[in-house]
Amino acid sequence: MPNLPPLVYAMLLAPLALILIAAIVKTWQAREARSWPQVSGKVVTSVAEVREVRVSDDEREDGYRMESRNFANVTYEYSLSGRKLSGNRVSIGEDLGNFQVAEKLAKYPAGSIVTVYYNPRHPDQAVLERDLPKGLWGCLGIGSAIVVAIILGSAFGLNQSYAWLARHIGRPDLAGMVVGFGAFGLVIALMGWAVRRQAAVATRWPVVPGTVKLSEMEEYHEASEPGESCGVEMFGKRVTYTYSYQNVRYTNECARVAAGTPQASTKLLEKLMSRYQDGATVEVHVNPDNPAEATLDVRGGGRFAYVLWGIAAIFAALALFVATRG
Fold this sequence. Notes:
The chain has about 325 residues and is of the alpha+beta class. It is built from six helices and eleven strands. The chain folds into four domains: about 1-35 and about 135-160; about 35-125, CATH 2.40.50; about 170-205 and about 300-325; about 205-285, no CATH class. Helices cover about 40% and strands about 30% of the residues. Helix 1 runs antiparallel to helix 3 (about 135-170) and helix 4 runs antiparallel to helix 6 (about 300-325).
């Protein structure tokens, strides 16, 4: 077993633990819902809509920012003891947006008759699907095993690399620095490869027309530094674009700018919008497997990959310099 402090393992395994806890909670909710009675209902609304959702952002004082995401708004009505109720929750699983929007709309068109499962203790709580996705725990089990193997394998490999370098470089006390630089370089290089691969896939996505839209000025405070009572006041705007794919309308974010004054923010936006003018028609590359995912610049990812590879090369050069000149 690699000789690392327990806190390191706790930090590495914490994200996996959170995912497993969430899966356990949802499994419990799904099992409870299996006993819910059912009643016939009717879909009254089935449209795509854009909602503002909170996204974690440590750079802001509030700890979050708002982001536009696409959802399938499926509203249905059902009657219990002469009382008409309505709901818009499709499944037990959480809907985070930008996923299976078109599939849900096609499955539950307006006017269709559906089976509604309702909570007998709270009849206004209902779903159309009470089962979790098939194979969920199998996928989580395989994924967990892979993650644990990668973490332990990486830690073991780092320890072995450290021990080997300590015996073969002039300054054994710098072996940890060499391993650190090399590991960072490798991780960044792999990130570049993933970005490059995704950009190559995006070049084959279908292209549809879209329209650029500019948001109103947003005012917020950055996260405060230690000893400060309040963070720096910032002014920002968002650039989004709308498009339709297979008769479903989506909204996606193109860019986000922010500065210390409204005037500076406007100037930054003017530079950005020299390419995408407000209201302009643009070509949108849409992921056919998930139309809520799209991009205006399929080459941007490829260019960013070269930036990542350049950073990886710098770390590799630092590792080599310390190992040979330390």
